Amino acid sequence: MATKKFRCKVCGYVHEGNSAPEKCPMCQAPQSEFEEIVEEGAAAPKKGLNTNSNVYTIVYAAVMVIIVAFLLVFVSQSLKERQTANVINDTKQQILAALELRDLPDVAAKYDEVIKADNLMKADGSLVAYNGDFNTSYKSEFDNGNLHVFEAVVDGKTKYIIPMNGLGLWGTIWGYIALNDDRSTVYGVYFSHSSETPGLGGEIAGLKFQSRFPGKQVVNGNEVALQVLKFGKADNSSKFEIDGVTGATITSTGVNAMINKVLSAYIPFLTKKESVECPDEQNVESID
Amino acid sequence: MANKNSEALKQPMWLNNPVLVQILGICSALAVTAQLKPAIVMGLSVTIIVAMANVIISLLRNTIPNRIRIIIQLVVVAALVTIVSEILKAFAYDVSVQLSVYIGLIITNCILMGRLEAFAMQNGPWASFLDGIGNGLGYAAILVIVAFVRELFGSGTLFGFQIIPQCCYEAGYLNNGLMIMPPMALILVGCVIWYHRAKNKDLQEN
């Protein structure tokens, strides 16, 4: 059977057997000076589970994965509604930010007050009302050929807001550009990004960069002429040139490419003359 | 025992600082210290996550099979970070937008795995919790020091507010562009380590 071990507290001699010896053979200390050695390794198997066995390891991993998976699904599902509402609210906030309406207490109410219509551009540049749910991903809408144009009224004047998407240095960048009713003069812009470097590319989300846009012209003839150039290269007296962000040339180039790509697709709308507006009314009459 | 717990909390703040002595979490220290605000947010997030992960692993420590312990630790950390991120998206959307990339970066922060493996696997939940708080705050402190210097000299601002007056710029002062770049963070961390070693001679290696 298992032999126990006893150590002499006086000299450290270890005796193996079922009980301590009467006298220590080394230092002659009495039996009371001996103490039993309880080995740590011997205690573990008593719990009944061998945590190093293959079966235990596999079962443990499987249980762990299932628990974590259920937990994540539960959290994701139970919070989804709130998250969607937040995203919609945030999108509306960004659209309003392009109209220089920032830090609003009640975004949804202000949005309903200011934004009059969510339109789609047709190939000839005219607008038709968009009838779907409020959209939060304008990248997929753009890729699908649904070109949104928001119509807003600020201080009694009509503004048009166009959503934009593009690529920065590390990830996606996006923004909204608000134009006056001449469809060329910039009224305001809003940019944001998913993962640009804070302090560098991240500055496109800052007011310092965005305040360079108002008053500039988007189109010249039938071309998109608005350009974001490397910092210091832009001619400030020009109607079309804007300085990029210091030290963030690639992000600035990304903003430039985004503006060019998106607004080029909107050229029919941007170059449509004022006088040809209200095609809807004409259509209505002809149907009558 | 109380003494051991307070050691677990205090040691990592300075003498056994995760960044300065254990040289953990350097990667994220470079990424988020260009400005003060993200540095503080990152420091606090890491503190909370390390403390929570430490407690969970400490509670599980006797059941975890030795051969897959790193994977288990990783799963716990990843699940925790994902849940925190989801909750933020639902209840504090503004914060989650600000954190955006950092929250994902927390998973890869070496401090987490380092503390789980080195401390939580051997110690009880309360001591592990304190160890997590201590290491998180020690990490945050270094981030704040580095971010303070980088934002002040790189952008002339603190928390986004202009500190260096306009007249200095008109007199020819320029922001130091190198401060904004990640290599400067490494140099600054090196300077802090230098000071730290000079103060604590027993840490010096020959």
The geometry of chain B reads as globular
Helix/strand/pairing category of chain A: alpha+beta
Summed over residues and divided by their number, the pLDDT of chain A gives a mean of 82
* Biggest beta-sheet profile of chain A: 6 strands, antiparallel
Structural class of chain B: mainly alpha
Using DSSP, what is the number of strands of chain A?
Answer: 13
Helix content of chain B: over 70%
Terminal Cα span of chain A? 107 Å
Q: Order of SSEs of chain A, N→C?
A: EEEHHHEEHEEEEHEEEEHHH
The amount of helix of chain A comes to 25-40%
| Side-by-side strand order of the widest sheet of chain A | 5-4-6-7-8-9
Helix and strand topology:
The complex is a heterodimer of chains A (288) and B (206).
Chain A: E1 4-8, E2 14-17, E3 34-37, H1 40-43, H2 54-98, H3 107-114, E4 115-121, E5 127-129, H4 138-143, E6 148-154, E7 157-167, E8 172-179, E9 186-193, H5 207-210, E10 219-220, E11 223-224, E12 227-229, E13 241-243, H6 249-265, H7 267-270, H8 279-287
Parallel strand pairs in A: 12-13
Antiparallel strand pairs in A: 1-2, 1-3, 4-5, 4-6, 6-7, 7-8, 8-9, 10-11
Helix pairs in contact in A: 2-3
Chain B: H1 2-10, H2 26-31, H3 36-60, H4 69-91, H5 93-107, H6 110-120, H7 125-154, E1 157-158, E2 161-162, H8 166-170, H9 177-180, H10 182-199
Antiparallel strand pairs in B: 1-2
